[in-house]
Prior knowledge:
Layout: E1 8-10, E2 26-28, H1 39-46, E3 50-53, E4 61-62, E5 74-78, E6 83-84, E7 88-93, E8 102-109, E9 114-116, E10 119-120, E11 122-125, E12 137-140, E13 143-144, E14 151-158, E15 171-174, E16 182-183, E17 186-193, E18 200-206
Amino acid sequence: KNMVDIRAIGGNNSVLRAGNNDYISLRATRDGALFTAGWLEALALEGRIFIASDADANDLVLGQTSFADTTPTFMLRVPSGTTAIPLFVDLAQSGTVAGAAIDVIVEADNADPWASGGTAETVLSSRTDQPITNACTLLSNPTVTTANYGVRLAGWTLGPDVSPAEGAITKVIWRPHVPQFLVGPASFKVYTYAGTTGPSWLWSIGW
Length: 207
């Protein structure tokens, strides 16, 4: 009888990559089980998912007191030669209560309009051994050049409150409806602002 011998390359670290129309070996776990995964899990397994937040777990980032297109609260800079997929924005009011209703706007831009300043925040991979070097920069409170509007992906208005008592909504969680591929140079910006006193955030952003 004719038989087919199917063999896969066992491994759980780096993967082989081929060009378009090239053959590539199947991939398996080390016990020989054929490996399949969703695209997001596969990227995470390789260490290609990155998460940014404050280096000190209880540090806060202060938002603005009014909207200006030049002052996002957060900005992900994607350099030329790199593609980033924004995965989530997690914001929770904390610290000093904002002075008025809070607006939050999430935006993607096909340019990198960074002009100056901002704090480069801590970034870690989905794998603690950091096998892939992060090429993007996540800044809090940078200045960007004027008139650089992309497309708004989401927006909210919520009341200023740091306590969830009586049903107050104190948290914003954004996930994309469809994957947004930011092919560098590009950027991803989050604007947050409230009158008189800007909102204070516990936060994390992933891509």
